[in-house]
Amino acid sequence: MSGLTLRPAREEDIPQIEALLLAEHLPPQGIKDWLPHFFVLEDGGRVVGCAGLEVYGRAALLRSVAVTPELRGGRQGERLVQAALARTRELGVRSVYLFTMAAGDFFSRFGFRDTTVEEFDPAVRGSFQVQAVSTIPQLRERVRAMRLDYGG
User: Tell me, which fold does domain 5-149 have in CATH?
Assistant: First the structure.
């Protein structure tokens, strides 16, 4: 694991990011649109982890956090989330939102707390993911909405 490189995503990473997300049952839509705010974990040219942001002014949606199964439990997801959250602070984001099905405890370690879709910043509500959760009752029942607010 010492050969793992955390870096900003590049356009040529998109197919590998999409494949990783699909393998984890996460939506791959819009990666190209938000690529400047995506990070990957690379191992010998292979994308083995990713995390991305959709940035809407002072609010952002953390999305696409995934690592390959063989890397789970090794704090690589934590590295990716820390990189994404550092980017939000650089950009002056005040609130970060996310959806998760099973990783609520993981995200709570970063200060995320439960919220409702209705409490999401209006700018974020146009996101594909927010629209899907808002309009598909079966999905809404399965996901946990969370938010992190920075002071100030």
Answer: Aminopeptidase (3.40.630)
What number of other Cβ atoms are within 10 A of residue 119's Cβ? 11
- The percent of residues in the chain predicted with pLDDT above 90, rounded, is 73
pTM here is: 0.93
Give me the pLDDT at residue 2, please: 53
Beta bridge partners of 55: 60
> 50-89: b or e for each residue (b if 16 or more CB lie within 10 Å)?
bbbbbbbeebbbbbbbbbbeebeeeebbebbbebbbebbe
State both tokens at 77: 């997801």
∠50-51-52 over CA atoms, to 5°? 130
